[in-house]
Write a structure and sequence with these properties.
The protein has 450 residues and is α/β, with parallel strands linked by helices. A hairpin with a 5-residue loop joins strand 7 and strand 8.
Length: 450
């Protein structure tokens, strides 16, 4: 929050500048020319590794020179003043010939690079603030202005200071691919710990949106909290956004999961192992599991809060319970609730892409599933939005499986109806409702043979 306050303060200060100051775009001519001079003296390979782009230069002449250097490199030609001038334009010959003196050696490239990138970041901050000025003086809702500020600030703080070329992407991909040789990479995403479910999903991957859908009382919050607890026990920071239950109820459930006890009985009778309870509370306090239980938290605040948790706590696993309870944007209530939910779904998808975090989005299912023979849900049962199934990387639907007469009601059907990274399939978990714990049983589906 401190960083955001500083950013807002900086923008307000920016607004006090005179109009003549607004055109003083940050630039460092010495850094731009010194960097290019080092390149012309033989430091091109190191310059490429520094991931510099045309946007790293404010001077149009320097942009042309850098572009020419890249073209020469791609063609396998030597990067020297004469070749560069032939590509950048003969009118820049004298300018190019003077550049090596600005370096004045190739070994000085590491001296100029930080200055070059720092000034690029300042220019981005300048243009970001300039863009907000128009919003401040318009009828744009304050909530949208603050979200834009924080989003831009987050992006500026975390992104590389250049746009990667296709070659950069292929280089990164090749490095990642080779890590699978010769013994494989193991887990490609976050595993649940339930072997039958992990065989189907094969890990929840970064930047993914994973929908868990069910009718009320069918275990979506219970399973999500069990997963969050398991991830946190592995040392993975987790944030749980709860729109349905306050912290006290979630804490009860976490205590029940940890100890395997019925917390309702403990509350009603006061009977139990209170020493174990005290030790459990002490342990749960140490877990990197953070709960946000503001029921009026809109999607803008949710995204803002998630970004701060990632920046301050290193959170890369977010749970949202549940989609249909997220309030619509203030002043933007649509007459069509499906449109509202579709917009919320898209915002959450963008959050996943922006933070590269795995997001678990809980969702209600329509009533129709209750009247269907067999009771098995479908993706089309996701309530109020077809956009949810489109935005999701995985869709897992929970249901009460058919039972023979006299069978106990302790099984939960888990059906993976969509999985972008692997196959679909079904499994059944045993659900101890007294303490909200889940246990493996067996898997059925197209992944059984794996």
């Amino acid at each position: 929050m401190t960083d955001l306050v500083l950013m807002v303060s900086s923008v307000l200060q920016f607004m006090r500048w005179s109009m003549s100051d607004l055109h003083a775009i940050p630039q460092d001519d010495m850094a731009e020319q010194g960097f290019l001079g080092a390149v012309l003296l033989g430091a091109m390979d190191d310059a490429i590794k520094a991931r510099v782009s045309e946007q790293s230069f404010n001077d149009l002449r320097c942009q042309k020179v850098w572009k020419a250097c890249l073209e020469l490199t791609e063609k396998g030609l030597e990067v020297n003043p004469l070749n560069v001038a032939s590509h950048a334009g003969k009118d820049l010959l004298f300018f190019i010939n003077d550049l090596p003196e600005k370096a004045p050696t190739a070994s000085n490239l590491p001296h100029w690079t930080p200055r070059l990138k720092a000034m690029e970041a300042r220019r981005k901050a300048f243009h970001m603030s300039y863009g907000v000025l128009g919003m401040v003086s318009s009828d744009t809702p304050t909530e949208d202005i603050l979200e834009r500020l924080e989003k831009d600030y987050f992006k500026l703080s975390n992104e590389r200071t250049n746009v990667q070329s296709d070659q950069d992407h292929w280089d990164d991909y090749e490095v990642d691919l080779l890590t699978a040789y010769p013994n494989g990479k193991g887990n490609l995403g976050q595993r649940t710990g339930y072997h039958s479910l992990d065989r189907i999903i094969r890990g929840y991957r970064p930047a993914s949106v994973n929908v868990i859908g069910a009718r009320p009382g069918q275990g979506k919050t219970a399973l999500a909290l069990q997963l969050a607890y398991a991830f946190a026990k592995q040392g993975k920071p987790v944030c749980f956004f709860s729109y349905e239950m306050p912290f006290s109820q979630l804490a009860d459930r976490l205590l029940a999961i940890h100890l395997g006890i019925d917390m309702t009985y403990l509350h009603e009778t006061g009977k139990g192992d209170w020493k174990a309870v005290a030790e459990a509370v002490k342990f749960l306090r140490t877990l990197p599991l953070f709960v946000e239980d503001k029921a009026d938290c809109g999607v803008s605040e949710l995204r803002s809060t998630a970004r701060r948790y990632q920046k301050d706590k290193g959170v890369n696993l977010f749970f949202i319970d549940y989609l249909q309870l997220i309030p619509p944007r203030k002043g933007r209530r649509e007459s069509n609730r499906t449109t509202e939910v579709s917009e919320l779904s898209r915002e959450i998808k963008l959050l996943g892409q922006e933070t590269k975090a795995a997001i678990f989005l809980l969702s209600q299912l329509n009533r129709e599933v209750e009247h269907r023979e067999g009771g098995k849900p479908r993706m089309s049962d996701l309530r109020e939005s077809g956009a949810v199934e489109q935005d999701a990387d995985t869709v897992t639907l929970l249901y009460d499986p058919p039972k023979e007469e006299g069978e106990t009601n302790d099984h939960l059907g888990v059906m993976v109806s969509k999985n972008r990274h692997h196959g679909k399939g079904s499994t059944v978990l045993r659900w101890d409702k007294s303490c909200n714990r889940f246990f493996d049983l067996t898997a059925t589906g197209m992944t059984d043979e794996l």
